[in-house]
Design brief:
Arc Repressor Mutant, subunit A; 35% helix
Length: 172
């Protein structure tokens, strides 16, 4: 039994995506979403301490094959399909496969509360407040835009650099 706690967001429009039509693929995709880090995390790999970024995971084709009960070829073909559809990016070598879920931060982000969302109430209200003040609405919109931009920028990476230490590939 896994000791992972928490949740992931799954948007309803997944029902319109090709992955919805195959139960095995859908299960594997959701499993990948649950496997990747929800925050940056340091791991010891090959006697080196590596920071694996949010939305990324170091694994192997062999371990995914055992986990899902698939052949290694099927796992590899599935990961290739996800890459072609720009759902993930991978880096593979003889020891590991780094999986980076593209747009993880966009779909899994939670707005940060930097500014107050509503004014504190000093006395009880007789009428319920249905909408925040206009200036607070603007703060909320700006916060959400900033959060999405930060998450998107932290989860993107350059495909032109061949070094494993490239920050954007999910680990340092």
């Amino acid at each position: 039994m896994s000791t992972d706690k928490g949740y992931i967001k799954v948007y309803r429009d997944i029902r319109d995506h090709w992955i919805w039509n195959d139960a095995d693929y859908l299960k594997a995709w959701v499993d990948l979403l649950m496997m990747v880090n929800h925050e940056d995390k340091q791991v010891l790999f090959d006697k080196k301490l590596i920071t694996v970024r949010r939305g990324s995971r170091i694994t192997s084709i062999r371990s995914l094959s055992a986990r899902w009960g698939w052949s290694r070829g099927r796992v590899s073909r599935f990961l290739d399909m996800l890459e072609r559809d720009r759902m993930i990016a991978t880096r593979r070598d003889t020891k590991k496969t780094l999986i980076n879920v593209i747009n993880y931060g966009f779909y899994q982000s939670e707005p940060k509360t930097k500014k107050p969302r509503s004014r504190p109430q000093t006395e009880p209200q007789t009428e319920p407040q249905t909408e925040p003040q206009t200036e607070h609405k603007q703060y909320i919109i700006e916060d959400i835009k900033e959060d999405i931009k930060e998450e998107y920028m932290s989860s993107t990476f350059s495909e032109n650099d061949d070094t494993d230490e490239e920050e954007g590939w999910g680990y340092e």
